[in-house]
Write a structure and sequence with these properties.
The chain contains 11 helices and 6 strands. The chain is of the alpha+beta class and about 500 residues long. Strands 1, 2, 3, 4, 5 and 6 form a 6-stranded antiparallel beta sheet that branches. It starts with a helix and ends with a helix. GO terms for molecular function: efflux transmembrane transporter activity.
């Protein structure tokens, strides 16, 4: 009883000490951020109402383009995209690893049983006579059963720091999934914008083919009337052939973009041909956000993930430091042995031990201190990575805002140039029909018109992409999508009945 009292006192003392957690506690890295973005060009500080309205608009920023097909595609992509589902499985995996680490807090217990015949050698001098097994009877039957258990007392917080590190990793994986979601939305919207602009370019090319056919017909008529010549007919035919040839790569691009969008939605290429093949007006360019306080940068999943990685690396320092301290383990063994079934439950057949074991590192050639230095360096690298991620994010936002403002005037100038070119082309054809200019002037104005119209279409595309890039740079979109738990196709409970009874 006295020995049991001492052991109980030791256990009680150990449990009291278990509140001690070594290693540094995580402190967020504070960076001095500007109150607003330089390119925002706000004339007055953003009001709370403007900030609230901006946050609401950015929750589902794709709806600001006022294109119901785009909105429908986004909803389908969130449900069906495989990269997003893979990221969800990574969350499940990290949560399982966290639970695996947390299992160290609990006693680890295993059961065993067995039996059979054994034989001992008698060809060794001075071999001690075994009770119940004299030397002239080297064989025996044996039955055994029992249990072994081990419980580590987390006195210095090694397990706690390990669980903390895995919890931070779970959070980082959640942010990684949100980053995948944002990349998906950005790629889908960009592909859709390019698809609609390409269809617009096909329409422009088709109109120019019609104009080229009219020019060929006009040249042929003038030749028949004795005014034109065969050179003009050849030039008109060459221009028509060139216009037809330029349209074919655009059709190929439409097919490729349709395939890409289908894959983003988790569908086979070609499934969206019917839905997307009909040209539609270009989506509306949204208005510039009403409020642009720099605090919105905290929405970016890559920044949030980098911050969680830094927290995880800090917890890993605690794991390495805890390895310098003593480890306390309570082993328990219960293992009766007997030769017959009725004997295994008798008192004489019982065998057990219940101890408190302690181990402390003394000399390992600097291995453990090296592990601490490595963990510290890894944490510092994670902190610097976080800072670099913030700087990169600010640059991307500033670049996106600069492009947004600059492309407005650029698109307006190209629109004016396209209108002027179309007017000049129409006048050139009329003058050519009246015999006042040569066919070279007609070709020149038509090519200029086609180039101006295509450049205007690409400028409209850039304006749409500027909006997508700005919303992506600001980390918008993931807050409107709930983080649903993924499921496994096969449940553990259907494979092992013991999993329902024991926490394994």
């Amino acid at each position: 009883m006295k020995g049991h009292s001492r052991l109980g006192a030791c256990l009680a003392a150990s449990l009291m000490l278990s509140a001690c957690t070594v290693g540094p506690n995580y402190q967020p890295d504070r960076m001095k951020l500007p109150a607003s973005f330089k390119e925002a060009a706000e004339e007055h500080p953003a009001t709370p109402e403007e900030i609230e309205r901006t946050n609401k608009e950015m929750t589902e920023w794709w709806a600001l383009f006022k294109d119901p097909i785009l909105t429908h595609l986004v909803q389908d992509a969130i449900k069906g995209n495989y990269d997003l589902q893979i990221a969800g499985q990574h969350i499940l995996a990290e949560r399982a690893m966290r639970d695996r680490s947390a299992s160290q807090w609990y006693p680890q217990m295993d059961a065993n049983m067995g039996g059979g015949d054994v034989r001992y050698s008698i060809n060794i001098d001075n071999w001690p006579i075994r009770p119940g097994n004299p030397s002239n009877r080297p064989g025996a039957s044996m039955l055994t059963y029992g249990a072994t258990a081990s419980w580590e007392l987390d006195m210095f917080g090694r397990i706690r720091r390990d669980v903390e590190a895995h919890e931070r990793e779970v959070e980082a994986t959640i942010e990684a999934r949100r980053a995948v979601l944002m990349g998906l939305l950005s790629e889908l919207a960009s592909d859709y914008m390019l698809l609609r602009v390409t269809q617009l370019q096909i329409g422009i090319a088709t109109d120019n083919i019609r104009v080229a056919k009219d020019a060929l017909d006009l040249s042929s008529r003038l030749y028949r009337e004795g005014v034109g010549n065969t050179l003009q007919i050849a030039q008109a035919q060459a221009e028509l052939d060139a216009q037809i040839a330029e349209r074919e790569p655009l059709r190929t691009r439409v097919s490729q973009l349709t395939h890409a969008i289908a894959v983003l939605l988790g569908k086979m290429p070609g499934e969206l041909e019917e839905q997307l093949k009909q040209p539609r007006p270009l989506p509306v360019v949204p208005e510039f956000p009403a409020a642009m306080p720099s605090i919105v940068i905290a929405n970016r999943p890559d920044i949030r993930m980098a911050e969680r990685k830094y927290a995880m690396a800090t917890a890993q320092i605690g794991v390495s430091v805890a390895n310098l301290y003593p480890h306390f383990v309570v082993p328990l063994t219960f293992n009766p042995n007997a030769s017959a079934m009725y004997q295994v439950f008798q008192v004489n057949g019982m065998s057990w031990q219940f101890l408190l074991m302690a181990s402390m590192p003394l000399m390992h050639g600097g291995k453990m201190t090296a592990e601490i230095r490595a963990a510290q360096a890894t944490a510092e690298a994670a902190r610097l990575t976080y800072r670099q991620t913030v700087l990169t994010a600010f640059k991307e936002v500033e670049d996106a805002m600069a492009a947004w403002h600059d492309d407005i005037e650029y698109a307006e100038q190209l629109h004016k140039a396209a209108e002027d070119s179309a007017t000049a082309s129409d006048r050139a054809r009329k003058l050519y029909g009246a015999g006042l200019v040569g066919f070279l002037e007609v070709l020149t104005t038509e090519r200029t018109t086609l180039k101006a119209q295509n450049m205007e279409a690409l400028a409209r595309l850039e304006r749409l992409k500027d909006a997508v890039n700005l919303y992506t740079a600001l980390g918008a979109g993931w807050k409107g999508v709930a983080l649903t738990n993924s499921t496994l196709p096969v449940s553990l409970e259907t494979q092992n009945v013991l999993a329902r009874a024991f926490k394994q």
